[in-house]
């Protein structure tokens, strides 16, 4: 009877430990998923900024041409 009781206690302990490990693993997976989501958002923001910079560069180039033409008048 004592042997069965100690095995039952050990089994309960192992099941609890396994449950704790599953919870920890789930938290890590969710954290990784969130990190990937944030990284994707950062990449999208960077692309949008790059487009804005290219547009600004083009506008500055056009303004320089206009300034040059106005100086000749």
From TrEMBL:
UniProt cross-references to InterPro entries, sorted A to Z: BORCS7
Keywords, alphabetical: Lysosome, Membrane
UniProt name for this protein: BLOC-1-related complex subunit 7
Family to which the UniProt record says this protein belongs: Belongs to the BORCS7 family.
Gene: Borcs7
Compartment annotation: Lysosome membrane
Cellular component aspect of the GO annotation: BORC complex; lysosomal membrane
Pfam families linked to this entry: BORCS7
Native source species: Stercorarius parasiticus (Parasitic jaeger)
PANTHER family the record matches: BLOC-1-RELATED COMPLEX SUBUNIT 7, BLOC-1-RELATED COMPLEX SUBUNIT 7 BORSC7
């Amino acid at each position: 009877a004592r042997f069965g009781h100690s095995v039952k206690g050990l089994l309960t302990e192992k099941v609890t430990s396994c449950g704790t490990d599953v919870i920890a693993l789930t938290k890590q997976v969710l954290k990784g998923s969130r990190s990937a989501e944030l990284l994707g958002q950062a990449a999208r923001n960077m692309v949008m900024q790059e487009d804005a910079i290219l547009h600004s560069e083009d506008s500055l180039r056009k303004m320089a041409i206009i300034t040059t033409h106005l100086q000749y008048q």
